[in-house]
Specification:
- Helix content is 69%, strand content 0%.
- 21% of the residues are buried.
- It has helices at 3-38, 53-64, 69-85, 89-101, 103-110, 119-142, 144-148, 165-173, 178-192, 202-213, 219-225.
- Helix 2 (53-64) packs across helix 10, helix 3 (69-85) runs antiparallel to helix 9 and helix 6 packs across helix 9.
Length: 228
Amino acid sequence: MTESSNTAETAHAADHIDESDIATLRERIVRLEWDQFQRTNNEGGRAACQGNWPVFHQMRLAQFLTWDRPLLESYADDLAEADRVGRNLVTEKYGRMMASTAPDEYARNIEPYIPRLSEGRVARQERVIATQVAWARDFRARYPRLGEAMRVLTTSEDTPTATSFETYLRGELGTYSDRTFALYEAMIAGRAAQSGGRGANITEETLLHTVRLGGFSDLDEAETAQVA
């Protein structure tokens, strides 16, 4: 065996180990979120989705499959630190969404008890959100049946019982540490700069992972399978 083939095999083995480590990290994050989700109290009692691990796992893993290792590691640290200090990021995420869906209750019972975001952080988040809403709108135009199965798109469409993609994203980003958000922001900027400035649509990437985890080969197959 030549030295070059030895080197190639070593590099391949290292890549395999690294990908295995990343896969384990993704699964750990999904489990940490699930455990916090189980401790989230809902008005009216436990929600049905809190007992549906397979769907939760599919939806959350699909998102984390689009993230690189530094972002995954930073968010895992956020979740672990939250557990250490008695903070629940999943509960906080849903609470932040209520700024739109139940503003009076949010102002009275939630806003005083969660970390306040600086004006600068909010402005940066809104730029990220605008990019992702545009990507989601583009995806829905090209895959209308899959789009119909998604959340409504914008905060203006929120109701007390329906939370939009935009509002959900705003709630989630608000729970990230400064380090995690900076890494996430850089990821979105990097994707937006791809394809000659047209951007690499992270909504499409996430939904592709979602349908593959659900047993479809690609988005076209999943779109065709949806009931018209």
